[in-house]
Amino acid sequence: METPTGTIESERDLFARTLRELYHVERELEDRQTELTEAVTDEELEAFSRLTASARPTRSGGSSEFST
Question: Which parts of this chain are annotated as the region Disordered (predicted)?
């Protein structure tokens, strides 16, 4: 199957591409959440941002085998 970003020749290729896309979407959501929580001024929302920050796993900063 031909796609705009290359050819998918097997179910494994499709799985790897989907997993890679999900990984990048999750990273983007984490970045957006950080931006939103930094913009918060209401006390209740600040408390919520502290709660979510403490529950969020830290990134290792290392490279992923799925990087493009």
Answer: 32-68
Residue 2, H or E segment: strand 2-3
Instruction: With cut-offs at 50, 70 and 90, classify the pLDDT of residue 66.
Output: very low
The answer to whether residues 20 and 66 touch, using CB atoms and an 8 Å cutoff, is yes
Report helix angle 43-55 to 11-38, nearest 10. Answer: 140
**Model pTM?**
0.48
Nearest residue to 66 via CA among 26, 24, 29:
24
What is the model's pLDDT at position 61?
Answer: 54
φ, ψ dihedrals at 30, nearest 5°: -60, -45
